[in-house]
Model the fold of this input.
Amino acid sequence: MGDKTRVQVSKLKPGRYILIDDEPCRIGNITVSSPGKHGSAKARIEAVGIFDGKVRSIVKPTSAEVDVPIIDKRTGQIIAITPDTVQLMDMETYDLFDVPIATGVNDEIKDKLKEGINVEYWETLGRIKIMKLKGES
Amino acid sequence: MDPKKAVLKESSTEGIKELPITGPWLENVDSLEEIINYYERIGFQATHLGKAIEIWKKVEKKRENGEEVRVFLGYTSNIISSGVREIIAYLVKHKKVDVIVTTAGGIEEDFIKALKPFILGDWSVNDAEMRQKGINRIGNIFVPNDRYVEFEKYMIPFFERLLEIERREGRPLTASEVIYKLGRYMDEKLGKEKEKSVIYWAYKNNIPIFCPALTDGSFGDMLYFFKEERGDRELIIDIANDIVKLNNLAIIAKETASIILGGSLPKHAIINANLFRGGTDYAIYITTAIPWDGSLSGAPPSEGVSWGKIKAKADYVEIWADTTLVFPILVWMVMKE
Done:
């Protein structure tokens, strides 16, 4: 689950998502130069990787299409916590899977994880990240 | 001191040739050419134009007799923005010049005009409104943005081609080589309009065009986007090896002539190259720049003599005038008369 789609650059906004170098990134800033002697209108997009926190930027004509990740936002329950991983159960499908704490959990909630609580987790392009807490089940 | 003697001081023209100042008597002339033939005796800048015609005719006569006078032509971008572009393309088509130096606009605007023309505009318009409308102004010439958008469609594949060539040859191309390849590209991709292009004829006749500041224009803007979009750092344009080519062209020639429209980079690059041979033998400058700020652009040929860029005994003249008024007349009188 989790795929990608094509979106025209002119339709992107800060807060939306984009794939840069195959990494899903959240768009922070877009600077557009209107058509001029440099040719057609261009956008410079600065974005932060969802999974690695790395800042990336690309430049594209505003008429170009780019890959945008389709992000599935799902609810899961924390079944077990080990030093390295969190075992999660999807509340819809009851699938069980492990998520590595180092790369698969939002830094802001890393020390708030407790067994039994519900979390919102994102799945895209076969990768998973636990993003926020959703309270006790 | 007797005031009368002060006012009516006796004169002496010893050592001065007495050539009368005179303009054409319009009842006795039948053509514009006859009028221009009077220019040397009209005074002020008309005299300078008359002298320029004489100097260039001398150069042409030598070339027609098979004597080598290598002609360097330099011009700034605004010259190509104007209709003088067609005059220059004519000179290049008929091999009346041997080496060209220009700035970035002199390259890209020549290419763009083979796609779509610029249009006649006005000096005083609301420039902020022009920006809203997407129309760029060069003096009283308008260049709508769509010209550049169209140009970009040709440049992206052209940059890809350059990259391919550089990979294949294992070295960066020099700016003059890039411009030569641009001429070939025009030959392949464009229609009849290319036949009024300077770059096209320079390619056909193997006349090198040097442009050390090639990135300082739309060409450079598009190069920037090409590189940023692809993360490319491979495509390089070499200016170091071009200076070797340019200087050697001046050194090896038997005699050289420097025809320079405007100032700045093209002017300096040409007279500097001629420094290596002890100075150019003929020089015609056409400029509106003034010398009083010490700029090179305003410096007359005589200043170049102090640098050894122009021979002390060289035949030179400077016309202080807008090139668009003067150059078509100069070329016509030299080439067609």
Q: What stands out?
A: The mean pLDDT of chain A is 92. Chain A touches chain B through 13 residues (CB under 8 Å).
